[in-house]
Amino acid sequence: MGADVGDDAGRDDAGRDGTGAAAPLVCTEITKIFGEDLGAAEALLAEGASRQDVQERTGCLVAVRDVTFSVERGEIFVVMGLSGSGKSTLIRCLSRLIEPTSGTVEIDGTPIGDLDDEGLRELRRSRLSMVFQHFGLFPHRKVIDNVAFGLEIQGAAKADRYRRALQVLEVVGLQDWIDHFPQQLSGGMQQRVGLARALCVEPEILFFDEPFSALDPLIRRDMQDELLSLQAGMRRTLVFITHDFHEALKLGDRIAIMKDGEFVQVGTPEQIVSAPADEYVREFTEDAPKTKVITVGSVMRPVDGETPAGEPVSLTAVLDDVLPQLLASPEALCVADDQGEVVGTVDRDRVAALLGEGSRAGAAPGDGPLEPR
Amino acid sequence: MTTAAPPAGPPPAASTIEARLALDRQRRLRSGGGLAIGAAVLVAVQIALSSLGGFPESLVIPLSDWIDDARRWVIDNQTSHWSFSFFFNPVSDSIDWGLRAVEGFLLWLPWYVVAGATAMIATAVLRLRAGLLAAVGVLYFGAIGLWEESLQTVALMTVAVAIAVAIGVPVGIASARYDRLQQSLRPLLDAMQTLPAFVYLIPVVLLFGVARVPAIIATVVYALPPVIRLTSLGIRAVPAVTVEAAEMFGATPRQTLRKVQFPLAMPSVLTGINQTIMMALSIVVIAALIGAGGLGQVVLVSLRGLFVGRALEAGLAIVVLAVIMDRVTHGAAGIGGRRRLRLMPDALAHVGPVRSVEGTLSAVDRLLLRAGSLLAEPLSRKLDMAAVERHPRKVLGAALLAVGTVIGAAIGRSDFPAGISFSFAPAIDWLVDWVRDNLYEIGGTWVGTGWFSDSITIYAVTPLRELFSAELAWPVVVLAVALAGWRLGGVPLAAFCTACAAGLGFLGMWELSMDTLAQVIVAVAMAILCGIPLGVLAARNDRFERMLKPVLDFLQTIPSFVLLVPVIIMFNVGRIPGIIASVLYALPAATRLTNLGIRQVEGEATEASRAFGATRGQTLRKVQLPLAAPSIIAGINQTVMLVLAMVVIAGLVGGGGLGLETVKGLRRTDSVGSGFVAGLAIVLLAMLLDRLLQAWTRRFTPVESGP
To answer: pTM to 2 decimals?
Structure first.
């Protein structure tokens, strides 16, 4: 069932491709099995055997199973899952740091499985970059030489690569630390170096493997904000792995929830919070900050005839933004779309119903359950 | 406990406890019974075969004759056969050429340039004090009249270590990359480190004869393992994510190695080189047996003539060389960190006179720095190398040395001046006589070194040797070894042990092997009896540990042969000094690993034991010692191997046994065969003991995921 959801999402994305430029990253039915007897394991999977079955009968570990998705240009695609769900393996398959057992990864339309070593290196040098969970910095190199590493590998002249590295270090605010060694820096600063190192080569696609999970909560929040503001300026394609649902909601344009090597659900934060695909996903959403995710549009009552007076709120605003107005007004607020046309109304009861739903497991008070958008 | 018991209460609980106790008794009986049965079998076999005694001549394989034939063939064909003209001789010639070049250069340099360069290097990587001490050490070589011999040894070391590094680093890199290579290398390296250095000499002599080149080759073979191991280890220790990051940026395998893995492995590689140097130095004397010359030769010849004082002078020169090389390579391995130009200990920094001395020093340093910069700036412009400008001190140092060399060459005075000389040999020789006269029997009583060594001989070594080689029928010894192997490692180990033990007989080395074995057992017993209590004490008393550490360091740094000299001063020649030297040589391993093992026991476990009101003795017995057992057993394992290595060497000073037989083979061409066979017997004995001990150690290694 989980695989179906993933497939649907994949097809959905593929459909969208027709309208614009091809998605920079398209993954089709990626499977990664660790172990000796891969043939037997694959055959069992084809018969629909469960992950546990395969493990028991062949001793092979199915880390990633039939994962299909694509990422749009400028999008942040978050893969969220608990430890052991296969997300780290998945992200390594995308750059062939781990060779997938089957399935294809296309970057700008080129299947990377077909590349030889040289081609793969060229791809990694020019288009991809990665930020690692434990930073993966080179302890024997100064900050600036860490950041300039990618360019050095490409054979750039020292002056050029230092100039560029300094630019990027300024962006992450570390221009005063260039002559330090990584271990002399705090965790947050080290990961800024990791980020700068990844950005230095101006990659099209950036992979983030739980980059902030080793940082303490306040620093983590700063880094998330910084990443978002960076992304607002550069609009690169990001694949971001995390085990933190809140982080996924905050950063993701779309989120894939991963469990036991499969995608359980793929959707926007709002879709996932308002319509969890199954009990597993619902558990995550339970203490999610819904008001920061759900938009006015999804809880409004469509306009029927008369439109109430008053200052309209935006269709795309999240509930958090309109709560003060909502609480201050006993009447329903009117909702306007981008063109300023009033399309519906929203009132306190509807929002209260939604917020109550999570904690009281569906026993929604007020005027009936909400239909998801 | 009572709350956990089922309602039925006491009867079942009591019966289960009874059952448990009974089971325990049974188990103890069974293991005791096993031992008893084993002993009974051995006794029965002994009674049945009591007339057999030592290994029968008729069963001996005439391997030594075959070896002699082979040696003769080598001598006859050295000029004609292709393997010599295209492989062995070119290898030999190029090594010889390299050695001559290095030696010639070192001896051509004026003595003060050698001393100055050593001081500068030591100052650069360590500190000024070390530099001055190093210079004093170098002057010592000349002062005792062994300038030439010392530089010969340095040249030999340089060439041997250069070859070892040139082979070891690439092999280490390859074995880090290819698991299969690593797996196939491991037993080889293990064997190389297990075997006493002696063993390498004979095959080398077979192929290359007795000269300096075979000495270098034997040294290279002996010293190679650490650099291979530690290069591989260092590269493998680079975190996977770091390598992954490099790959993610599209680095080629070569770029990853050059820019990430190797630099990160560098401290480990340098540690490996340091160990390689130390191992090479440790067999300087042994290599002299096959013609290495230099300081080793002086030690050897002096010892043979019982010129103990001279032997100690030359031995001390080897120690000085070892310490300088050890400290300098250690300093070079410690990357980073600024070195200050300080002469006195930091603790005295605030004392007036010290401060003025240091002030003067730093003023001089600033002056030197300015002079260096004056020299370096135009030089760097001329060479177009910016790097030169950043090292004004090195430029200045090199310039000074060059000027010194030119002056020396111009006035033709490069030999060490005869005017600077001193010797403490007469004092030592006097001490030897005094010890013999006064300590052998102190004050006319029976107490003294004579009594000590006599009682060890009479009550331990001789009876054991007699027991093994004459009184026990040889099948009993083999069977005992086999049973031990079976108990520790099942049938495969039993088969291996049987083969090794019987092999000693088939080689015709039964009696000599039993002689060596008896010495090993006595020395190991003494080393353990002293070493483990010392380790326990050190673990429980920080001040004692601090006092013990330099002593152990010293015992581990000095080459095994040099250790013999002071022991000979005390105990004269014979088997006992060999045993005592072995004990001293092996003691640090037992002590260190016991101390380490106990100290590694988690604080929490010890704390928990104390919280239950255990006394210090109880905590030690019930918590610390059991938890430290793996480490202690490993210490015993090392002790046995070190003792074996030393006992073999002690054959040279009257220890007899396999060592002496090997040396005879090296000295006289007509007995190369029996020397080779004796060497092989050492290998068998070493492997036998090593495997048994390894199996024993494994039994104590905690099982993973066990309770």
So the answer is: 0.74
